[in-house]
Amino acid sequence: MTHINNELNVITALNQGSVILYPTEAVFGLGCDPDNEQAVMDLLAIKQRSVDKGLILIADNYSQLLPYIDDVKIPMDKRPEIFSSWPGAVTWILPAATTAPKWLTGKFDTIAVRVTNHTKVKKLCLEFGKPLVSTSANLTGCEPVKNITEAKIVFSDKNLFYVDGELGLGNKPSQIKSGLTGAVIRN
């Protein structure tokens, strides 16, 4: 268990395939390099989550998400709603690129993505040069952790890199919506 205080160490950890625990808009998240299959499998094992469920990617900007989504399949009438919600705490389920790894999409042909407004996460994604996997920091079926102290108790036996920082102003995990229909999947 390592506690990280600066972004340079976080980027090194991500490049080495580590799983990080970091603040997001409302809860702490577990994250890693989305292109590193072993890092994603380690994250799923920590969380006790099935790969079939898929994961969320969190990014600084829409361009970072383009390698993972099939932009041309996003309906034109849904684009204004999607893009006007970002940056912010709205996760959209969008068509996945055919090259998007199955360890991110799970059993789906879609992928969950969000452009964050959390200053620290934006900076991490910019410095890392791509999105991060972002899933709430909890064991499946349990409440997400809301601070580092709580995280160190819940994940005491796990090898995580901890990123200091304050949570955003949200009071619950991001809303999830379908980018094809606009339907709310998680409020």
UniProtKB/TrEMBL annotation:
A Pfam cross-reference name: Sua5_yciO_yrdC
Sorted UniProt keywords: ATP-binding, Cytoplasm, Nucleotide-binding, Nucleotidyltransferase, Transferase, tRNA processing
Compartments, record wording: Cytoplasm
Reaction catalyzed: L-threonine + hydrogencarbonate + ATP = L-threonylcarbamoyladenylate + diphosphate + H2O
Domain of life of the organism encoding this protein: Bacteria
GO cellular component, one term: cytoplasm
Single biological process term from Gene Ontology: tRNA threonylcarbamoyladenosine modification
Signal sequence interval, chain numbering: none
GO MF annotations in UniProt: ATP binding; double-stranded RNA binding; L-threonylcarbamoyladenylate synthase; tRNA binding
Ranges where the YrdC-like domain occurs: 4-187
Primary location class: cytoplasm
Broad EC category: transferase
EC code: 2.7.7.87
UniProt record similarity statement: Belongs to the SUA5 family. TsaC subfamily.
Function: Required for the formation of a threonylcarbamoyl group on adenosine at position 37 (t(6)A37) in tRNAs that read codons beginning with adenine. Catalyzes the conversion of L-threonine, HCO(3)(-)/CO(2) and ATP to give threonylcarbamoyl-AMP (TC-AMP) as the acyladenylate intermediate, with the release of diphosphate.
Name under which the protein is recorded: Threonylcarbamoyl-AMP synthase
Organism of origin: Pseudoalteromonas denitrificans DSM 6059
Lineage: Bacteria, Pseudomonadati, Pseudomonadota, Gammaproteobacteria, Alteromonadales
Recorded name of the encoding gene: tsaC
